[in-house]
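re: ur question from earlier - yeah i can do the single chain one, its not a big deal. heres the input i used so u can compare w yours
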Amino acid sequence: MRRSPLRAPVPTAAERARSILAAAHSMTVVTDGRHTEVRRLDGAGAMGHVHLHAPSEEPAAAAGERVPVRLEFTDIAPTPVRDRLRARVTLTGLLAGPYDPESTEETCVEFGQCVLEDTDGRTYVTLPELEATELDPLATSEAGLLTHLADDHPELVLLLLRLVRPLPERGARRVLPLAIDRHGLTLRLEYARTHRDVRLPFGRPVRHVDHVGPQIQALQAAARRLSHTSILPS
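and the output i got, formated as tokens:
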């Protein structure tokens, strides 16, 4: 019996949400009918400014007045691909009081929901899943790694197309790195009216950002061992 090919490993929804929150440079806070753009997340990510805790078991009257809040995060590809929106994460919950956009202290949010929206659809992530998920070691370095590949090593990106199976369709006009995580590298192939994302898994999951170089080099070596294909953009 013919075996179906194994799917390249990808991050779980909890891992993706955790990475987006860690790498976020800004967030939109929606509460009391107001939208507030917060752009002071550089270096700390959302979890450096927002503390999520489990829903209170106290009766509403004992817990005091609580204010509903929605935190919105947008994951944008750092490379200039055609459609740069990769995912959205929305956190909902309750605040102990009105949100103060001028406060420099951590905002405490009673967890309600965490929703990840991407090309696969909408996925709900629980607070225990977020808390138990180890942060991807490449999450906060991803933008630099991808722009370095795109700007300084475009020939390597094209070379890696030899590893794509099934073979890409002819007519690709541009190929750019779209995403990278502990499990592998994702490339975007852009055609005249559409695009295709392809996954190149690493030989083993990366445990530290310093270990990503050898994994990229291993992909490069594997690609060079394959014969040249005619699907490379001119």
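Confidence is low (pLDDT under 50) at residues 1-5. not sure if urs matches, ping me
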